[in-house]
């Protein structure tokens, strides 16, 4: 309940502030203060006295005023803005003092000379919605003055404003010739003494600039948010300024513009991440707050940051407005707030202004590289940027349908700007995901086609590299077993984006393959700090790093957490079984194996055996010449997992016959004692009835194969017994798969050699070469 002795009244509240105040102070502190003092003495005080206004508070960059008459308040605002326009006519644009004003009629609480309440808060929100040099008023104000003042108004509609329960109907005052007719000369009247003291405030402001490098923007009429507590923070504060950028609100009338607001948010995060002097929470974590009413304190404590940036984006046709405010969560006060208006063509410059003000406000020094190139626009074609944002929004959703739906948007971006490196990176990311997750089958493509598309698009993206381009490139190199090159590439990605957690997770995987689990752990933990709302994949990376350091108790705890969050993830139980095996926890190992087999049975997979795990390792480029599998085999055996049809080590014996070399971002293979044959030779073999064995998966074989070719899937069907049913050991036999970058047929040749086949032939060009030669293709 409100105390009975609280004084309330209905009044007219005017809120005003200076656009770009922090920049003006940073460039010329003394000159800015002098200009503001002159403005107050020569214009604000006389006009306030003329229209019976009372200055409640004066700040370095604004004022809160009260008027007994709504007409007086609006007339004061119109005359003041027109007078400021005239004063600025002879001032260079970058030194002009430009105000925006909001006017509200509201019920307020009076506390001595001060006033509080929603009426004051709404006036401040209206001011934030005004254009530079403009005036925004509430509908109640418009209704009071429209028949008394010859002014025109623009209806901006119902707008939701922060901390106000209901939307506010907002109108903009048109400052045209009709408004100019209202102007009267500045009267030489004795001004009412201000309740605050300008010299004291300006002195205090100047002192604060010196002491805290401009970090505090004091707005007493802006309610102080509940401060965060360092003690309650989930993570220790970093040793450099830390910030979380909350998803910007889409203030456009069109809900479909949500992608644009999200894209602006993500680009601000990316641009801030390029500044090495900042610690920036990743998109993955901050977007968990999207659409939620969340307090700054909660965000800061959840993520372990000091500063929170929040804002909104309004796009109407080609016009863009960005409102942003930076809050110091520990004090609860704003560092700064500002609005940025421009056309869609100015969108990159608007983003740079926001980033620049944050960097300036937090007193962060840029390196030479960051100053020279950190904020360069990636395209000069805004329509291409818009198309990219739509594609990236779809790609970010992660589903198969959305990933495929992103393709035409990236293609459109490239059509509009053929040099748009980021759009090529988007296509590379799409096709790499399709390749990895096996979605190519549903697209009517084969593995090699999507793999080649990913490689070709990443090559184009690297002509104008971005962090995403380097990241996808590193994953492809790691897949090819080129670990050193992959590490160098992921480090380039990190250099462009210090705060992308996925980069550090990718690096952790590669370091594991390289036999450097201690560094892999460090990288995984850093990713989890940048992205506190991390996915189970992050835990999986950390668990593997701990496992390969033989820290099995810690690894078991991590894998248990993964299992609790993704109870149907089959591979987690395989790793848990091996971990429990090393720990001698037999019953838990048995339960993990049972859970693995239960999940496998649902998808018609075979029960867990050491041999099955070995087959998976042997067919993965990244594990070539790696000691990685051995601790896994050992743990599974200790857990009582059966060996399977053949010892797992046998799978690696045949790999000693296979060698690979690199050319133009691809792997090419040779098999000791096995000749390579050209497509014409294979055609002749086929006509002679020689056994041609296709070792691809059943889906690829069914969509097209060499006529008469026998299908034996390398992973499912190619055993010594099955091959013996096809061909005798002294007869010619040809193996092929998806082409030169596919290792399956090379491995099949090596296996056949070890099984005693004497006339093995390696068709390295594979089915793609057959098809390209124009030979008949059989579909089944």
What is shown here, in short?
With 780 residues, the chain is an alpha/beta fold. The chain is built from 32 helices and 20 strands. The chain folds into four domains: 7-212, Alpha-Beta Plaits (2-Layer Sandwich), CATH 3.30.70; 242-373, ABC-type transport auxiliary lipoprotein component (Rossmann fold), CATH 3.40.50; 550-645, no CATH class; 658-772, Oxidized Rhodanese, domain 1 (3-Layer(aba) Sandwich).
Can you tell me about this structure?
This protein has 780 residues and is an alpha/beta fold. The chain has four domains: 7-212, Alpha-Beta Plaits (2-Layer Sandwich), CATH 3.30.70.1230; 242-373, Rossmann fold (3-Layer(aba) Sandwich); 550-645, no CATH class; 658-772, Oxidized Rhodanese, domain 1 (3-Layer(aba) Sandwich). 48% of the residues lie in helices and 16% in strands. The strands form four sheets. Strands 1, 2, 3, 4, 5, 6, 7 and 8 form an eight-stranded mixed β-sheet that branches. Strands 9, 10, 11, 12, 13 and 14 form a six-stranded mixed β-sheet that branches. Helix 1 crosses helix 2 and helix 20 runs antiparallel to helix 21 (536-547). The longest helix has 22 residues, at 29-50. It starts with 6 loop residues before the first strand and ends in an 8-residue tail after the last helix. Mean pLDDT is 83; it is low at 188-223, 368-376 and 646-652.
